[in-house]
Amino acid sequence: MDKRPKLRRLKGAAYPLVYTKERLLNMWFTSFAASVCADCFVYPLDVTKTRLQIQGEHSNPLAKVGKYRGLFGTAMGVIREEGFLKLYGGFSAVVVRHFFIAGVKLCSYDYLRMKFSTVNAEGKHELSFMRGMVAGLISGAISTVGSNPLDLIKLQMQMESRRRLLGLPPRAINIIQSAKFIHSTGGIRSLWRGFTPNVIRVSLYSAGGIACYDISKQQMMKLLQSEDNLLIQFLGSMIAGFACSALSSPADVVKSRMMNQPIDEHGRGQRYKNSLICFQQLVRDEGVLAMYKGFVPYWLRCGPWFLVFWMSFEALQRLQGESSF
Asked: What distance in Å separates the CA atoms of residue 265 and residue 35, rounded to the nearest whole number?
C-alpha cells in the first residue's frame, strides 16, 4: 500500500493548494535529474552558441583567429581543432549548478503559481498569463543569486581550450581552479561579474521556459479538450523552447561578453564598465542583429533542452506516482 502523503487539491483545482515538504524535495531532485538528462543531449550546442557570441569583439584575441561561420562550422571547428570532448567543456559546472539551482527555480515557480492562482467563474483555480509570467520572472531572479558564479565558471571553461590554442595563459582546468582564478583576479565580487545581464536572461528564460510551458499546456488542454498527455507535454515544451530563446537571447549575448572579458586587479571589466555599455557597443559596432548572435544554436539548444527536460520530468513524476506539472 502506498503510504506516501498525497498533495491536497480542491475539486477542479489546476494547482496544488497546500505546499508540502515532500513535494518540495520530490520536485527538487526530479528537476535536477531531468536537467542533467537534458544537458547530456544538448550541451554541445551551448558551447557552440557561446563561441559564436564571443566572436566579433574587436579587442578579443579569440575573435581574430580561426573565425567561426555558422552552427555547423563552429561545431566542426571545435572538433577539428580541439577534439570532440571540448564540446562538453564546463559540463561539470553545469551538473553542480543544476543540483543547487534547478530545484530553486522550479520549486519557487511552483510555490508562486499556487499563490498567484485565482478562482474562475466555474470555481476552478487557474493562473493567468501575466501572473504566470511574473512568477517565472521572480523564480528566475531568485535562482540567479546562487547560479551566477557557476555560470561564470562554466563560460570560462567553455572558452579555455580555445585560449590554449592561441597561446594565451590558462585560466582553469576544473571548477575549483576556475573559482580560485576568478577570486584571485578580483575577489569575491568578481564571482558575480555579469550579474545584471544574467539575472535579466535567467528571469526571461524562466518566464519563457517554465511559465510558458505551464500556461500553454493548460490552454491546449482546454482547446483540444484533452487530458494532460504526451502530446500536450510535447507541444508545451516546444512552445517553451522558442519563447525562452526569443525572450532571453539578447541578454544572453551581453552576459557572455561581460563574463568572458578580462578584468583588472580590482575585479572591474577592462572592456565594458557595465552591461549597458556592453549593449551599446554591441549594437553600435556590430548592428542590431548582433543581439541575436548565436540565436540558431541557442534556439536549437533551448527547444530540444526543454523537450527532453519536460518529458523526463513528467515521466519521473509518473514513476513516483505524483501529479504532472
From this structure: 36
Task: With CA atoms as reference, report the closest residue to 141 among 205, 86, 77, 93.
Answer: 205
The phi and psi torsions of 313 (rounded to 5 degrees) equal: -60, -50
Beta bridge partners of 269: 263
**Residue 215: what pLDDT?**
93
Whether residue 200 is contained in a domain is answered as yes
What pLDDT is attached to residue 315? Answer: 93
Closest CA to 274 of 247, 255, 252: 255
Q: What is the pLDDT of residues 268-316, one digit of tens each?
A: 766 887 878 888 888 888 888 888 877 887 788 788 899 999 999 999 9
Q: Would you tell me how many other CB atoms lie within 10 Å of the CB of residue 48?
A: 28
Question: Which DSSP state fits 293?
Answer: T
Q: In which domain, by residue range, is 128 found?
A: 21-319
The distance between the two most distant Cα atoms of the chain, rounded to a whole number of Å, is 67
Is 53 a member of any domain? Answer: yes
Q: Which of 247, 249, 277, 250 is nearest to 261 (CA)?
A: 277
Specify the CATH number for the domain of residue 148: 1.50.40.10
Q: Specify the pLDDT at position 168.
A: 64
The Cα 158–Cα 260 span in angstroms is: 10
Whether 155 is in a domain gets the answer: yes
Q: Which pLDDT does position 232 carry in this prediction?
A: 92
CA-closest candidate to residue 324, choices 256, 240, 237, 233: 233
Q: Does the pLDDT of residue 63 top 60, yes or no?
A: no
Contact 205, 301 (CB under 8 A): no
Q: How far apart are CA 113 and CA 128, in angstroms?
A: 10
The DSSP H or E segment spanning 118 is strand 118-119
* Residue-wise pLDDT tens digits, 111-136: 899 889 887 777 777 888 999 999 99
What's the domain count of the chain?
1
Q: Is 1 within a domain?
A: no
Is the CA virtual torsion 222, 312, 117, 147 positive or negative? negative
Nearest by Cα to 294 from 29, 69, 99, 133: 69
